[in-house]
Every structure is written in structure tokens, then in C-alpha cells.
Amino acid sequence: MNGGGILQLVTFKLENEEFGVDILRVQEINKMIDITRIPNAPPFVEGVINLRGKIIPIVDLRKRLGFEARAYDKSTRIIVVELEGMVLGFIVDSVSEVLRISESTVEPPPALVSGIESEYIEGVGKLDNRLLILLELKKVFSAIDRKDMERAASN
Amino acid sequence: MEDQVSDKDEMKEIIDEFIVEAGELAEKAIRDIVTIENASDEETVNSIFRAVHTIKGTSSFLGFTTLSTLAHRAEDILGMVRKGNMLPDHEVADVLLESLDLIKTLLEEIKEGGAERSGAAGTIEKLEALAKPERKKLGEILVEASVLSGDELHEALKKQEAGEPEKKLGEMLVDDKVITEGQLKGFLDTQKSQKHKEESTIRIEVNKLDELMNLAGELVLGKNRLILLNNMVKKSDAKNGVLDNLADITNYLEVVTNELQLSVMRARLVPISKLFNKVPRLVRDLSAEFKKEIELTMEGAETELDRSLIESLHDPLIHIIRNSVDHGIETPEDREGKGKRPKGMLTLKAYNEGNGVIIEIFDDGKGINVEAVKEKAREKGLLSENELASLPARDAMRLVFVPGLSTARKVSNVSGRGVGMDVVKTNIEKMNGQVSVDSEQGQWTRLSLRLPLTLMIMRALIVRVVDELFAIPLNTVTELVKLEEGLIKSVDKKDVLVLRDKVIPVVDLTRVFAREIEEHADKYVIICNIGERTIGIKARTVEGQEEVVIKPLGEYLGNINGIGGATIRGDGKAILILDMSALIDRASLQSGHRKIA
Fold first, then answer.
1. Which of A53, A87, A143 sits opposite B568 (nearest CB)?
2. What is the pLDDT of residue B189?
3. B483 shares its domain with B507
4. What is the reported pTM?
């Protein structure tokens, strides 16, 4: 990361951690709606929803990152992102704000951050008294691979 | 400085690429012209047209004027053939072949020396003459006008052919001062008295059609919502006036939507001849390769299929035919030894049935050796001894679709490695189609492919399993059975239903989909079948029949076992479509096919 640029992020909360994703990837943010469950899918895949005529898969980010599951409430949101043509949504506890931070405030991730796989983390941003975990979306949502499917099928 | 050099390199690269591409296009076009001379078909003509069109465009862009003009004239002729205004008979084919040969020559010249050398005037004139057959050739007009005598014309034409570079007849005559410029102009004007033929067809980009298809699909969904609304209003005692209006509008919309959907679907239909036309050549090549003698018959080439299905059907069909020629039909000596005619029979038949298309591939070869297949299955540990012993012949035949099961002793190019038939089955089922096989050992084999007319919309039965709704493709549903106490029996720890002497394995989706089971909550069993295999699916309730638009699950999810896409109902909720063949496969493997004593 070369210190000069500005990053625009959508920030959200999971458990007590704050995360940020590149705003250019974010298509929209929705309130929770009815999710159609999919059998034989990995446990972190909640199901699919209808987004203006298109079927969008929804991932429970808590489960995906290894946090405990939690009941949804009024503040739960679905963030819909587009990754190289692939559209999907993920569930978060709450959405905070859109932030602009300087790239210079972002440091490479330490080996272990809150128990999350380090390959999912692009970096950690330091702001005043906040720590923002920047997610590497492409790794978090790499198309479901064989292992996940087999694990799901054998359960 | 640097820029100039890299520009030149870039230019050379572009030209090199062009030469290669254009060369290939020209080669293929030549082969295609030979084909259409014997039996013209739309797709081949289109292909030649596109090839010449591409050559025209690129050569023009690169500044190769002779090439582009030649290609342009040829394209004109091909355009007329395409529209049906000209038959590609021998005369036309000859001129086109001459043009393509010249194109190849010009490409060679560009490759060797960087520029065109030959002239194309003579060939261009022939093309132009073809294009306007009612137009008299300039020479004829001049003779008629007594400007030239017949002999003089003859001399002039000879001179034209010998000329280097070739000049147009008119230009040449002006140069030789036989006629003046003014006269030439006059005669050329006389030539021009063509009427344009009416355009009865139109070119349309496929993605525009796809968009229309999408819109038609959305309209179906909108119609569904309106029907739902109509029903709701009916239930809540609305004033008669409003109700009547709503009912009218709903009905009207339904009719319009159905028509639109059918129209768009029909626009995408392409006759299967596109595929069938490749078969004679394929069979000829394969017969030579495997030293068999084959008599090929094809029926129903005019049967139409959605164009995307035609593309997906190509590989499976080729593979099936290879199989027939390689493994099915015996060598002439073998056949004579068995008392059969030395020439093997291979028949391709396509026809419409219900809302689908059936394609049959029949060969009178050695059929499926059921014992050998069973033996292979035993070897691979697919089924137990008991299961194999009680397996009926038809079911055993179906084993040929299992991966890795090939009883061919020699491994040839593609067939024989056991990777073929299962891929065929998977591909066909991906298209929501079905494959089945029938055979008499030593006598014949028949493969039947059943394909839907369209991939996008289908009729479905909406059922509730546990707490979720699912859509079952209606074309697989044969009946609905109301569940009563004692109807489902347990055999070998598997649930079965006895229906009019037939034993049908019953599938509890809660188990398949790994949910908690609630006993005795299901009220119905839905009997579904594909080919001759039948299963029953337990359901809480049956909501009704609906036309659904099939939406893919998307890249992220990929293929989920048992699910063949999703659809959106009138109320906006997404529900999953069951993949019947996957569920049936799963059930079949587990329970085999048994009779209760």
C-alpha cells in the first residue's frame, strides 16, 4: 500500500468488531428479508433471496468468519456486493457509516486478528480509538469449493 | 522514436494475425461452399457470409483494397443466397470458389511481399454479373448497340484476361479508344435498371433476442402476481364492478403473455438439421477409421429446437455416434458371421412429442451385453451380489451411464475410456432433458434423448416440504397420492409405496436435505418419474401448478446436489426447483429395484 491514496469504506459491525469493505464493491444495503434456505449447502450459506428478479445467494458472515451465530434483530442488515461479475449478499449485525480513510493509516494484518483467518484480512485501519478490519472480499467469498460442498453433503 | 517502431511492430502483428485468420476463414468457406452446392442449409450459408464479411471488413481497415472489394462483391452474392434470392447452384458456387481462391492468393502475396499483386477485376466482374443477372453484360450491350462486333468483343475479353493488372472491360475499351468515356457512362447507365427485392427477413443480434426472452419471462412473473392479486380480491368480497374489471385484465394479460412467450421462444428455434448435416461426414470418417460399413438414415431434420440446446447437443450427439460406430456396429466380417447384412444400419430420428423433442439414435450392432456390464459393476464394487442378481435387464442397461464403466476392450480415441456415456447423461440432464437406452443383445441398441423446447420457462408443481416450498417440474409428475395410514411400508429400512403392483421408493426430502424429521406430518406423496424410474416424494401440502421462470443459482453457489435452479413466485419469494434426475439417481442407487413377494 503506498501511503498517498484515500480509501472509501462501508463499515459494519460483527460481534464487537468493526469491519470495512471497499465502497466500490458495494451494490446496496438492505434490511433483512425472508431468506429461502438451500439444503446441501455449506453452513455459512444462509440461502437465496430475490433481488429485483435476480437470485442472490446470502452468506452469514458471522458463520463464515467463525463467530457464533446470533439471532437477527432490527439492526441486522444485508450488504450486497459485486465481485467480478458475481453478486452476493452477506449478513451483518449492523451497518455503521461510510468512511474515508487515508491509506497510510492501514497496516498489514497481524497473524491473528480476533480469531479470523488472516487470509481473509487485507489490513487493519487505525482511527482514533477505533480499529477497522479491512476484509479481503475475494478470499472470503471465493466460489464455494469442493471441500465445503463435501463437508456439507456429509453432514 | 520508440513509439514509431512499436507502432510498426504492432501493425505487422495485426497484419500477420489477419492473414492467419482470413486464411482459415477462407479455407473453411471453401469447404462450406462445396457443401452447400450439394445441399444448402441456412447455417452454412450464414457461416460463409460471416467469413467473407469479416475478411472484407478487416482488409478494408488495413488498406488492402483489392481484397476488400473482392470480398465485398462476394458478400453481396452471399447476401442474396442468404435471403433466398439466389440458389447456390454450380455456376454460383464456381464463381464463389474462384473468388475465395483469389482471396487466398492475395493473402499469400501479402504474406510474402507485404502487398497485393494480382488484380481481381475479372472475378469481380463475374460476381457483379451474377448479382444482377437480368443486367446484361457490358459487352453484350455494346454489341447490341453495334459499337463492337461479336469478334471484337471476343478479342477484347481475351485481352482483358491476359491483361496485367486486369482492367474492367469498360475501362479497357476507353483506354484503347474503342469507345469514349461519355459513351461508357451512357452504357453503364443502361445497365442499371434493377428493382430492389422486398426484404422479408431481418438480421437480429442474438443478445437482443435474449433480452426479449428475459422480458417475456418477467412478464410471466408479473402475470402470476396479478393472478394472485385477483384471487385475493375475489376472496375479500369486493364490489362486483372492480372484480369484473380485474378479472378481465388478468385474463387479457395472461393471453398476451402466453403469446409473447411462445413468439419469443419460436424466434429462438433452429431446425436440428444444423446438427444432422454434420453427421454424414462424421459417419463417413468414422467408418473409415474403424473399418466398418455403415448405412446412415436421418429423419426429422426439420424438427426445431432452441438454439442453445442445439449447441449443447453437439458434443453428446457426436459421442453417441462414435460409440455406435466404434463399439456398436460390428465389422462386416463379424456381421456376416452372425447372419447380418455386412452393412451396419445407423438411424437418427428427431420428432416432437408433447412439449419436448425426442432424438433417437438406433444402430443394429451388437447391443448391450448385460452380463458384461453387470460384471464391470461387480468389479468396481458398485452394487452388491444380491443387488446385481435381482437387477432387471433394463436397469442393468442403465449402468452404462455410470462413470468409469466401459466394457470396451480396446481403448480408442475417446470412447472406450469409460468417460463418455456418463458425461453424455450429465450434459443432457443439465438441459433438463432425459436419456434412456434400450437394447437387444446381439441385435440392436437405441438411445433416446428427450429435450425440452425451452430452457427458461416450465410448468411446475408447488409443494410444501416441512416448512419450505419447492417447485417440482410438472413434466416429471405422474400422479398425486393422498397419504393414509399404512400406505408406506418399510423394506430393508427403506420406505416404499406400493402403487397398483409397482413398488416405488419413497423419498423423504427432510432426510435428503438433512433437516429434522417430523413424523406423520406429510399428507401427500408425489409420484415422479424420469424414463422408467419412479420415486415418490413426501409433501405436507400441495399448493398448485404454476408456470415458473427458471433462474440459475449463480456462480457463487455452483451446483447444489438435488437443486436445479430457483424461481420467484407471485409473492416475490424465491423458491427452489428440485432436480428430479439427481433425486431419482440417489434413490435408485440406494434402494435398487425390488419386488415384494
1. A53
2. 63
3. yes
4. 0.55
Which of residues 484 through 523 in chain B touch A, CB cutoff 8 A?
A: 509, 512-515
Task: Tell me which of B452, B484, B505 is where a domain ends.
Answer: B452
pLDDT score of B596: 28
Residues whose CB is less than 8 angstroms from the CB of residue A11 and which lie 6 or more positions away in sequence, other chains included: A18, A19, A20, A95, A96, A97, A98, A99, A132
**ipTM of this predicted structure:** 0.81
A40: nearest CB among B513, B555, B566: B513
Task: Starting at the earlier edge strand, list the strands of the sheet with B457-465.
Answer: B541-549, B457-465, B468-473, B574-578, B563-568
Q: Is B221 on the interface with A (CB under 8 A)?
A: yes
B88 in contact with chain A, both atoms CB, cutoff 8 A: no
Q: Do residues A53 and A46 touch, judged by C-beta distance below 8 A?
A: no
Span B50-75, mean pLDDT?
Answer: 90
**Phi-psi category of residue B280: left, alpha or beta, with phi > 0 → left and psi -120 to 50 → alpha:** alpha
B514/A40 CB distance under 8 A: yes
Q: Determine whether the interchain pair A56/B554 forms a contact, defined as Cβ–Cβ distance below 8 Å.
A: yes
* pLDDT tens-place string over residues B460-476: 999 998 778 999 988 88
Residues B315 and B351 in one domain: yes
Contacts of A54 in chain B (CB under 8 A): 551
Q: Which amino acid is at B459?
A: R
CA-to-CA distance for B276 and A32, rounded, in angstroms? 52
Confidence of residue B198 (pLDDT cuts 50, 70, 90): very low
